[in-house]
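Internal tracking record. Fields below are filled automatically when a chain is submitted to the structure queue. Please do not edit lines marked as system-generated. If the sequence contains nonstandard residues, flag them in the REMARKS field before resubmitting.
Queue: standard
Priority: normal
Entity type: single polypeptide chain
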Amino acid sequence: MQKKQIYFTLLLTLLFACNREPIIAPPTDLKLEYFPLDIGKYWVYAVDSIVYDPIVGGIEQDSVRLYVKEEVVDTFRDATGMLMYRIDRYERYADTMPWQIALVVAEGIEDDKSAIRIEHNLRFSKLVFPPFTGKQWEANSAFDTEMSFPVAGEGVRIFRQMLFYIKGVDEPYELPNLAFDSVTTVMGTNFPETCSLEYRTIEEKYAKNVGLIFREWIILDEVVSAPPDTCVDAPWRDKAEAGFVIRQTLIDYK
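SYSTEM-GENERATED OUTPUT FOLLOWS
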C-alpha cells in the first residue's frame, strides 16, 4: 500500500510539473527608439566649427557656421544582408540659401545590439543596445584608428586611442529651442595625461524617438613639430596648434 502511495504521489508531481507554464523572463527593453530610422525622417542642425590652422608666425583659428540637413530616403541590404537606410546629407551656409547635397551616408541597427553609421567608407558603432550608464565598447574597431585625416593641411589622428562609454540614460535635456524627456549621452575620450600632445573628447546626445540631437567633437594637437617631451601648461583651446572643435545642435526634425 505504501508503494502505491509513493507511485501516486510521484505521478501527481510529474503531472503538475508538465502542466505548469514555464517561467519566462520579462523582455529586455532594448531602447532602440534612441536611434529611429524610417524613410521620410529628417534632422536639421546648426553646426559651428573652429579649425586650428598653423601659419607663419602663429596659429589661425577659422570659425564657420553651417546648416546641415540629413534625410532618410531609401533602404538597401549590405553584403551581410543587414538592412541599411540611405541618408542624404545637405548643407548650406545660411537659412535663406538652397540646400546642396554634400554626402550620402548609411545607418542601420546590427542584430539589435549596435547602431551603425557608415560615412566616408568608415564604419562607426554609434550606440549600443540596451544602453546603460557605464557601458563601454569599441566604437571605431572596424577601421584603423591610427590613420591621419587632413585638417587645414595637417595630418590629425582623430580617433587615436579613444574609449567610448555611456555617460547617462533616460535623462531630460534642453536645447535652446527644444526640450526632451529622455536622452542618452555617449562620451568618447583618450583620457590625456597631464602632459600630452593630443586631446580627444567626443560627446553625443540621442533623444528617444528623435535620434541625434547634439554633438561636440574636440580634437586638438598641442604641437606639430616640437620635441616629444614638449608640454605647454595652458588650456587646450589656447595652446592647440592643429585640429578642430565642432558643435552640432538640432534645430528641427520630423
